[in-house]
Structures are given as structure tokens and as C-alpha cells.
Amino acid sequence: MVLGSKESYDDCLEALRDLRKRGLDDPVLGVTDGAPGLIRAFEEVFPKTLWQHCLVHKKRNILNKVPSGAIPEVKSYLNSVYFAPDEKCAHREREIFKDKFAPSYPSAVKCFDQDFAACIQHLKCPASHRKSITYTNLVERSFLEEKRRSNVIPRFFDEKSGLKLVFASLIRASQNWRRLKFTFEEEIEIMELRERLGHKAEKEQMISKRPRKGYLVSNNFSRKNKT
Prior knowledge:
With about 230 residues, this protein is mainly alpha-helical. It folds into three domains: about 10-130, no CATH class; about 135-175; about 185-225, no CATH class. The protein is built from twelve helices and two strands. Helix 1 (about 10-20) runs parallel beside helix 2 (about 35-45) and helix 4 (about 70-80) runs antiparallel to helix 5 (about 85-100). The protein has a two-stranded parallel sheet. The two termini are about 20 Å apart. Helix 2 links the parallel strand 1 and strand 2.
């Protein structure tokens, strides 16, 4: 965590480089909103990591461009695209979406087409994990908790006191972050994906951690290979 005045490229770059310096290897996948500075910094620091556009933000941007009465139908078609069984199906559903809504809602379809590849990166990951790795809700909820606590304080005495409060909120929120479980098959799937991305996947070490009943129980694996 570092102090920054805004979501600028320079501030985001400083934060992500600090993660690198402290030993963070290439994640499999990272999720952000559409902030250009953050995206640029993320792709520069983690060029071998899949960038996933937050689908909550993306769908909100698209649905803001259609009449309220059409939102349920458009949303249903969007879910068919973004949560398709695989990337091939997602591209097929994409064309169906465009053919159906382009004549009536061209602005919405234009927004839908932007960064489309980044909206379906999660389909490369295990199917049981996909709904948990497509949004930035964990971060957004942390922001709300920090604002709730800071709103009752007239002012911070100094920079350090503000950082301490935010850090305490994040530590508490992070206790509920690691809920995904990996079967042995999903462990292998992630390992193969890491190899395709050019990561340093250690096959022998990972296979040696196989639990008796097929579930991975090593906290070390969860931290190092979290999607």
C-alpha cells in the first residue's frame, strides 16, 4: 500500500513496482476497472499476466447506454457472452449480441466491443473459479469500509495516521479473500496455463503437494498461484 493523490499512471506504477520488489511473482490473472493509468501500469509491470476487465464495471457501462426497459434483456445476452463455456463460444455469442442490438443501441454495442478480449480472459481459468475472478468487488467493498471509518474523523493528524487506518481496514477485509479451493485437476490446469504464459511453473514441486483426497491444502500454493 502506498499513498497517491489519484489513480494516475505514475502512482499505480509505483504501487505495482513495489509489489515486484517485495517478491510478488507473475500472477495468473489480475482484475481492474477501466482506469487507463492503472491498466497501462499493470501491463507494464506484469506483461505475462492475463488482464481481466471487471465485468461489474463493464456491464454497468454498457447498460447505462440502453433504455431501462431493455436492461433485463441486454443483461441476459451479456451474461451469455461473458460466462460462456469457453472462448470459442464467447466469440460466437458476441456476434449474436452485436447482430441483435447494434441497430437499436449502437453506443452500447461500441462499448461492448471495446476491450472485449480482456472481458473473457477468465475463461482460460478453471470453470469453478470464474465467477470469483471477474470483478473488483473485494476492493470496492474495502473502499466503502475505509470511507465509513474515515467519515467520522474530522481530519487525520498526519499521513501516517491515515495510512494506518486504511491498512487496518484492509487487513480485516483480507481475512475473507481466500475462499477458492483447488482440486488436483485444477492445480494442473493452472500450472499448464502458467507455462503457456511463460511463467516459471515448477511441475514437480506442485505435483508433490497433491493431497490424498484431491484437494490442495497448502497456503503457500494459494498465495503464489492465486488467480
